[in-house]
Amino acid sequence: MVNQGKSIGALALAAGVGVETVRFYQRQGLLPEPAKDYGRIRRYGEPDVERLRFIKSAQRLGFTLVEVAGLLKLEDGAHCDEARQLAEQKLADARSKLADLRKVESALVGLVKNCCASQGALSCPLISTLQARPGAAAKGRRREAGAARSLPIASKNGSGDSEPGEKARRQAD
Q: Whole-prediction pTM value?
């Protein structure tokens, strides 16, 4: 008897994913589940391997599984304008995330720099900044930086305070 096609384990291995990933994609409607003859196992072909690779490639570019489903509907290549629009939106999202990461980087550079400049009995500017309550710094004087949006950014004086006198106000609280 000739064994045609791959088992789910061989399919997963060929595509570089886990068996549970294959099953999950099937439940999500991203990968069709082949028919199963009575008493036999399901068999998958090379198109299934290619489809899994397509899904993983799209995910690496930042597409969600919902967006991947939309791309799979366009995979015949006749919908280039629609695919381009989806890619343009993903590019805009990536650029926005990069801008946020640059803000986070800038905030961290300042905090690291102030840690190195800390002297004497001053508490660590990084730890002080992370412990600061939201609203401790004047609104509008903080740099927004992704997850660090509520962090006051350390000043050039090395105190970790984003404005003059803020450390005294924090200690008084």
A: 0.62
